[in-house]
Design brief:
Pfam families: CxxCxxCC. By secondary structure, the protein is mainly α. About 55% of the residues lie in helices and about 5% in strands.
Length: about 160
């Protein structure tokens, strides 16, 4: 898996223009059954992909923390939300709460998340390949294929299945 992760940014860069063109067409005319196709592709990929062997998302990027995430995680730690913010988060350039640093503070050496049961919504939904109205998040998907081997594989399968003119 380490070798796959090491090669992923290069592979994603090589496919970037092709993927960007594909997603441009997809946004203009998404198939009616796109969400069902994506759900099937997502489920098939994650039957054979174990995130614990990778955790590249946790090692290289940080999620956005919503107010609900902050409340839930602070409660888990039995601390006030502001104390949680002060200890673990910062405001980014878009005024969103993000981790102070990556890799994620809550990621263990064994790739397990110490707050898995209460993790942020962004973590629960990553890589967002089974999201409703998938065609609306193509820019996010273009970024995620360089981070997540499963997202890369899903997009490659998607291009084989969905033929756009």
């Amino acid at each position: 898996m380490d070798e796959v992760i090491k090669q992923l940014p290069k592979l994603a860069q090589e496919k970037h223009n092709e993927n960007k063109k594909f997603f441009g067409k997809l946004r203009k005319k998404p198939p009616k059954d796109l969400d069902y196709i994506m759900q099937d592709l997502h489920e098939a990929e994650f039957r054979k992909t174990d995130c614990l062997n990778c955790a590249n998302c946790c090692k290289t990027t940080g999620p956005l923390f919503t107010n609900a995430d902050i409340e839930r995680i602070a409660k888990h730690f039995r601390m006030k939300p502001q104390k949680f913010i002060d200890q673990f988060l910062r405001l980014d350039e878009e005024n969103d709460y993000v981790l102070q640093s990556v890799p994620c503070t809550f990621l263990g050496a064994d790739n397990y998340c110490s707050i898995y049961e209460v993790r942020p919504k962004a973590c629960r939904e990553f890589p967002h390949t089974d999201r409703k109205k998938f065609h609306q998040i193509s820019n996010l998907t273009l970024k995620n294929v360089a981070i997540c081997p499963a997202a890369y594989n899903i997009v490659e399968e998607m291009k084989k299945i969905i033929k756009l003119k």
